[in-house]
Amino acid sequence: MREKWEKPEAILFDMDGTLFQTETLLIPVHERLFDRLRQDGLFEGDTPSVEIMLSSLGMLLAHIWERVMPGAGAEVHKRADDLLLELEIEGLRRGEGELYAGVRETLEALSGMGIRLFVASNGLPEYVKEIVEVKGLSPYIEESYTAGEYQTATKADLVRLLLDKHNIRHAWMVGDRSSDVEAGHANGLKVVGCAYAGFGKEDELANADRTIASLNELELWLTGDE
C-alpha cells in the first residue's frame, strides 16, 4: 500500500513534458527554425535531428543550443532564441500544440480542492505564459515562473524563489526530468515524476518519490480513488 501523502498547500508543475505535449509544437517549429537560420546565412547543412532537441527539454535554452548546434557561436544561438520564440508563439496562436490528456480537467479539480497551482519552467517566459493563456489554463494557474524571466542558474533556485515569494511551506513538485526531481528535493518538496513524456533517459525519474502514467492520478490520490 502506498504511503498516504497529506494534501499540499500548492503544486508546482513543469510545463514541457508535464502539462504540454511539446513535440506536437516543436517538431514543425524545429524545421522552420533551421530554414530561417539558413536564409539568414547563419547555418549550413542538414537540419539537426529534432530528437536531440526533444531529449534536451528541461535544460536551460543556452545548454540546449550547445547540444543541438555545438559548433555555432553566440550570435547564432541568440538568433535561434529569437526565432524559436517567434515561431512557437505563431504556432500556438494557429492552434498547434496539444496538452496531455486530462490536464485541464485535473487542474480544475485540484484548484477546486483549494490547492494553489503554479508553473516552474526553464522555458522562455513568453512561451510558457502563451501556453497557459491559449490552452485555457489561466483560470487554474496562479502564476508562471521561468528561468528566463528570473535569470536563475538552476531549477532549484527558481523553485526556491517561487516558494519564498508566496510563503509556501508544503508543496509538491511535478515534472518529467531529473532537474525537476533535484529542484523539488533541494527545497524539501515531495516529487511526482511524470513518466508519460519519454524525452529523458530511462533512469531520469529514479529518485522521484512517486511516478505517474497520467496527470489525473494526482486527483485520484487526493480523493482516495487510486
From TrEMBL:
One of its GO terms (biological process) is DNA repair. It comes from the Bacteria. GO terms for molecular function: phosphoglycolate phosphatase activity. Transmembrane segments: none annotated. GO terms for cellular component: cytosol. This is MTA/SAH nucleosidase. It comes from Xylanibacillus composti.
